[in-house]
Amino acid sequence: MIPDLNSTRDTRSWSSALVGIAERVIRAANREHPADAVLRETLKARHGLLPSEAAQISRAVFAYYRWLGWLERQIPVRQQLEQALGLAEEFKASPGNFADAELVARAVPAWVQTEMTVRPAWARGLQAEPKLWLRARAGQGRALAKRMDNCRVFGEGPLADIVEYLGRQDLFKTEEFHAGEFELQDISSQAVGLACAPKPGETWWDACAGEGGKTLHLSALMENKGLIWASDRAAWRLQKLKRRAARAGVFNYRTATWDGGPRAPTRTKFDGVLADAPCSGIGTWQRNPHARWTIAAADVKELGELQKKILAHATPFVKPGGKLFYAVCTLARSETAEVAQAFAQRFPDFEPLPFPNPLVAGSEPAPQLQLAPEQFGGNGMFIAAWVRKMA
Questions:
Q1: For the chain, first and last CA: distance in Å?
Q2: CA 246, CA 187: separation in Å to the nearest integer?
Q3: Which pick of 144, 348, 372, 381 has the fewest CB atoms within 10 Å?
Q4: Distance CA 44, CA 38 (A)
Q5: Would you kindly state where each structural domain of the chain is located, as residue ranges?
Q6: Structural contact between residues 275 and 314, judged by C-beta atoms closer than 8 angstroms
Q7: Tens of pLDDT along 111-157?
Q8: What are the two backbone dihedrals, phi and then psi, of residue 346, each rounded to the nearest 5 degrees?
Q9: DSSP SS3 for 328
């Protein structure tokens, strides 16, 4: 029987075979091969692993990168893994043992300080295991939470469809998942769709749709009425979107590849455009700790320029009176406030569009919103909005 790492600090009793698998994932991971992708493929190829064993391997790999700034890099990887697991257990049991200054200095690379203020609360949040969020079908959050157990609804009204999952089962194997009763979607990602607030019958463009999480949310908010164009530079991501849409019963969309250049996939003028642009993903570093050590300052600057181009190339397709939303799961100034400022200076025919924080009832509307991971237990997210002036 494999011991549960959550119930013991004696990592020496952990199966040597499982340690070996985690070690091989770490040795194979690099900038071109992210640890989460290597881990996924490794577990997929390992037949006969129990779900609990796969979960322990995953926790070990992520603990290694989460605590990399504390590890003795000169010792064998296997011993570093044991160090990381011990630190994770100590932090979970006694977070006060770790000083704020220590966390700020070790949790992220030093260059991050040039792009943002590394607050102790953020650094502390990075070292905890991330929460798992579901988006239930509209109006079904409480019923879903009751059926599945180990769930907590986030709020009242529409916010009750944001559900935190506290259990350990493989959600992709549940009846509820296969019936399309929920999507795995981070709370901050759900906030983007709620901020857009599309109406049934409108026409929207999800310009950087990826695998379609926000496309499906927009469709749900539109009650499957109207039309959504979903585009991405990678055709394989759009194929995944189609499979997800079929399971969710979403049909008011079309897909087309788009590389972010001046030639858009359609000549349609949209009521709303969402540019959820490629970014450094700094806001996801709690969930994806390997990325902390592969992203560089130069990448952030380069991505900021790409984001400006994507926004510029999307503007012609916003109709007068239409909305443009810019969203990135990063906290770097070069990708957030500076991109928004550059857009405002270049496109005076767009004016700031104030919107309330969709996760806080009665919040004061503002044209920009930054969600910190420690606020709600989700990814860091920046959202900015504009409306095209009437001719």
A1: 70
A2: 23
A3: 348
A4: 10
A5: 11-97, 132-184, 188-388
A6: yes
A7: 999 999 999 999 999 999 899 999 999 999 999 999 998 999 999 99
A8: -85, -30
A9: strand
